[in-house]
Amino acid sequence: MRRSTRVIVPLTLLSIALIFQPACVQTPDSGGDNGKTIADVRAVLEAQTAAWNRGDIDGFMDGYERSDDITFISGDTVTRGWQTVTERYKRNYDTREKMGTLAFSELDVKPLSPFYAAVSGRFQLTRAGDTPRGRFTLLFRRTAQGWRIVHDHTSSASS
Questions:
Q1: Which of 45, 60, 53 is nearest to 121 (CA)?
Q2: What per-residue confidence (pLDDT) applies to 129?
Q3: Which of 12, 32, 48, 154 is the most exposed, having the fewest neighbouring CB atoms within 10 Å of its CB?
Q4: Which of 45, 50, 52, 51 minimizes the C-alpha distance to 100?
Q5: In terms of pLDDT, which residue wins out, 32 or 133?
Q6: Which of the four CATH numbers 3.40.50.1240, 3.10.450.50, 3.40.190.10, 3.40.50.620 does domain 25-156 have?
Q7: 122 and 103 in contact (C-beta within 8 Å)?
Q8: Which residues contact 153 (CB under 8 A, 6 or more apart)?
């Protein structure tokens, strides 16, 4: 009796989990509309690049969810909240010369579910005196306004 209980209980729990699994949950390989998710997320990144390159930090920040819950990590600094992240960008890039020209490359968009996607890639700023570059990992969430960044971890390359 005891041995059969060890088999039946886990199988019962698995069956319950499968029955009550939300119908809208998809894994990255389960089909769904991953192509649209990838295109939509890439469009946000393209809009951010265009905004940055015309000196429009507010337009660049449209790619982030306007929430106190967003997180931006760079170096050893964690910044939370859309307004605080916006102020950080405006303080650090207060002239067109400091902003330079932004380019993203090696973008890899991975849909995680109908509501989340992860993105990794490289960035480079081209400025008169230097070309800062590095890597980033972003977590996007689908919101009523479309796909928006809710977590950004950016690392600068050392020289």
A1: 45
A2: 92
A3: 12
A4: 52
A5: 133
A6: 3.10.450.50
A7: no
A8: 73, 74, 136, 137, 138
In which region does residue 35 sit, left (phi positive, over 0), alpha (psi from -120 to 50) or beta (all else)?
A: alpha
The first and second tokens of residue 44, run together, are: 């946000």
Mean per-residue pLDDT of the chain: 86
β-pairing, 133-143 with 71-74?
unpaired
Buried (b) or exposed (e) across 66-86, using 16+ Cβ within 10 A? eeeebebbbeeeebebbeebb
| Global pTM value | 0.79
Residue 63 DSSP symbol: T
pLDDT in tens, 83-125: 999 999 999 999 999 999 999 999 999 999 999 999 999 999 9
* Secondary structure class of 137 (helix, strand, coil): strand
- Residue 111's alpha-carbon distances to 48, 95, 133, in angstroms, are 19, 35, 25
Reply yes or no on whether the pLDDT at 29 is more than 50: no
* Confidence (pLDDT) at 36: 96
